[in-house]
Amino acid sequence: MFEGYSNITAKNWLAGGTSIDKQDGMFSNDFFVYDLAFRRSIYCFNNRLTVLTTNMKLLERNRRPVVTTLFQSNFTELDEVVLTFNSQTKITEFPYEQTFDVNQLESIIDHRKLTYYLHPNENQNQSYQIKIRYGEQEMTYCNQQYLIDPKNNPIIDMKSKKFREPNFEDNEKYFRTTKDQFGLGYIEHLQVDDGTGSFVYTILIDQDNLDRWISEHSYEDRDPWSSTDLSRLPPTIILSKTDDQHIFYDRETDTTCYACFSKDHLNVNIGFVQSFGEPCFAMVRGRGPGTIRVSIATTDFMLKETMWMVLKGQWDNPQLISEDENGSVHVRSEILDNGDTKITVWQRIYLPVEFHITQA
Asked: Residue 80 region, left (φ>0) first, then alpha (ψ -120 to 50), else beta?
């Protein structure tokens, strides 16, 4: 159902991502359908995944909840079920249901020991509630394996989502209702009228020194390039979440991620990057003097325009790292009159391009 909802009603197709060093990556999309719009970027580094959502707007006149699911999974087979809030409060008796207002929760550890850090500094000016529910949940799956009577099947064509009853919900009576014990946590966004709503959270898997990692987000220095001492920085930094740009920094890998959603705002002037030539997604790892690694992906599916970016200062000798079948990709650098460096990428394949380049 979601596939049809997204594809049939989509009003733009800006989506994509890239990776770097064959291990870390990012993905961004400009989601715009008939009833809802938002921009989202997801940053994946080692055991941590940060999700940034901005420009949330409900496009229908009729009010209804706009939510982001943090987690939803069963816990029937688990020997021990523990829900932890703010690294201290432990919930072990279920069913359980609670609603939390802005900044009441800094972190959640769910029943599968995944940690959700809720970035209170970034979200403090937003309007939202976090809702947690643990208990029995009923579900109806309209799949053939759940038919009450295999000889009375309302599915005409599952691929096209075509059923016997014109109203989809009228087909539920042909299928068994399933029950299980589920844990559910989600964010209900309350600021969805003017497109200014945003939210950021990070999922952590088996994070060592979790309390310290969380406490380091209170560090006030948010400029990764003012010093070579990275220990003074928070582990993750949202450098920009404007209407048309998402820029994110990961301290452990010294990597900056860029998502430019609009051709009207391609001058970023953050880190080593001055600007891009078109909407794109890019990652830059390392710092000068020396060599940095760059990965960039165009959003121009038909490759009508040549992709380029401008790095601050003088850089030379770009060397392609990504696979290049049959000479399909070429990277060239040139020094501009103002002393900055323009990197031009020619490509005949719609894939991210990764290269390293050295400070001149």
From this structure: beta
Write down the pLDDT at residue 1.
43
C-alpha span between 162 and 178 (Å, rounded): 22
SS3 assignment, position 170: helix
Low-confidence ranges of the chain (pLDDT < 50): 1-2, 4-5
Residue 355: how many other CB atoms lie within 10 Å: 20
Helix H or strand E segment including 271: none
What's residue 350's pLDDT?
A: 83
From the list 271, 295, 288, 284, the residue with the least C-alpha distance to 351 is 295
Closest CA to 99 of 169, 183, 186: 186
Q: Calculate ∠ Cα 354-359-360, nearest 5°.
A: 130
| DSSP string of 202-262, one letter each residue | EEEES-TTHHHHHHGGG-----TTS-S-GGGS-SEEEEEEETTEEEEEETTTTEEEEEE--
Q: Which residues contact 137 (CB under 8 A, 6 or more apart)?
A: 179, 180, 181, 182, 184
Tell me the C-alpha distance between 115 and 333, whole Å.
43
Element (H, E) at 4: helix 2-9
132-182: per-residue pLDDT in tens? 999 998 888 888 999 999 999 999 988 777 899 999 889 999 999 989 999
Contact predicate 182/135, CB 8 Å:
yes
| Separation CA 333–CA 87 (nearest Å) | 49
**Minimal CA–CA distance to 66: which of 122, 7, 129, 120?**
129
The answer to whether the CB of 331 falls within 8 A of the CB of 345 is yes
Model pLDDT for residues 17-42, shown as the tens digit of each residue? 999 998 999 999 999 888 889 999 99
